[in-house]
């Protein structure tokens, strides 16, 4: 099992521990999302070993990714604004790009344009959340703020992914040992994402336990 798969599995376990009793459906739904993520990675690895081609698996997964992460942003931004129109607009653009990608190169080539557009929206949502958070006059203990850490992981992962894609032409020629440098960049981004998410799930559990 690859290191990235282990990190995802740890995040799934942490999500189950921290969120199974959460009354907020958006947070609780991340148990299902992390379960889907782990299953997709395992299925993708098996298919790659047998057929050496598994990009279509991730073309299916990106639909779940766009839906779950957007739903969470709607929940978080909804504390400050009417976020539904903004999120639905973003999803509509992502789905239009998804359809364009499929028509442009078929279902068996990864929808990289869709991933880029989705990442741009998630980075925008993250910055917008922090802007609204800064304007919030209420005291918030950031060390225990589940929302803060969830958005932090999301921002680092998708912003880093955009940068990696922009410089991929140059990075693909750089190898460290028997691996391309993009493998280590992706692993670092994965660690940041699921590390922050795992901590945010534990913060939610602390909030439930303390009654806040």
The class by helix and strand makeup works out as mainly alpha
Helical fraction: over 70%
Distance between the termini: 38 Å
Number of domains: 1
Mean pLDDT score, rounded? 91
Give the overall shape.
globular
SSE succession: HHHHHHHEEH
Main sheet overview: 2 strands, antiparallel
**Which stretches of 5+ consecutive residues score pLDDT under 50?**
none
**Beta-strand percentage?**
under 5%
Number of strand segments: 2
Radius of gyration: 18 Å
Q: Count of helices?
A: 8
Strand order of the largest sheet: 1-2
Walk me through this protein's architecture:
The structure is a single chain. With 212 residues, the chain is an all-alpha fold. Strand 1 and strand 2 form a beta hairpin. It is globular and about 50 Å long. The chain has one domain. The chain starts with a helix and ends with a helix. The model has no long low-confidence stretch (mean pLDDT 91). It has eight helices and two strands; from the N terminus they run H-H-H-H-H-H-H-E-E-H. It has a two-stranded antiparallel ribbon. Helix 2 packs antiparallel against helix 3. 79% of the residues lie in helices and 2% in strands.
């Amino acid at each position: 099992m690859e290191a990235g798969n282990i990190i995802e599995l740890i995040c799934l376990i942490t999500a189950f521990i921290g969120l199974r009793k959460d009354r907020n459906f958006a947070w609780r739904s991340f148990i299902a999302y992390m379960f889907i993520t782990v299953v997709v990675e395992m299925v993708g690895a098996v298919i790659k070993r047998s057929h050496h081609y598994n990009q279509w698996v991730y073309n299916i997964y990106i639909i779940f990714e766009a839906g779950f992460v957007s739903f969470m942003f709607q929940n978080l931004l909804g504390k400050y604004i009417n976020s539904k129109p903004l999120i639905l607009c973003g999803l509509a653009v992502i789905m239009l790009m998804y359809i364009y990608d499929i028509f442009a190169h078929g279902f068996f080539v990864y929808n990289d344009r869709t991933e880029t557009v989705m990442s741009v929206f998630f980075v925008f949502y993250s910055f917008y959340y922090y802007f609204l958070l800064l304007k919030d006059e209420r005291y918030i203990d950031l060390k225990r703020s589940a929302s803060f850490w969830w958005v932090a992981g999301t921002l680092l992962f998708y912003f880093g992914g955009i940068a990696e894609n922009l410089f991929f032409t140059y990075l693909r020629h750089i190898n460290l040992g028997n691996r391309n440098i993009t493998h280590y960049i992706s692993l670092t981004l994965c660690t940041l994402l699921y590390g922050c998410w795992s901590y945010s799930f534990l913060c939610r559990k602390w909030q439930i336990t303390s009654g806040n």
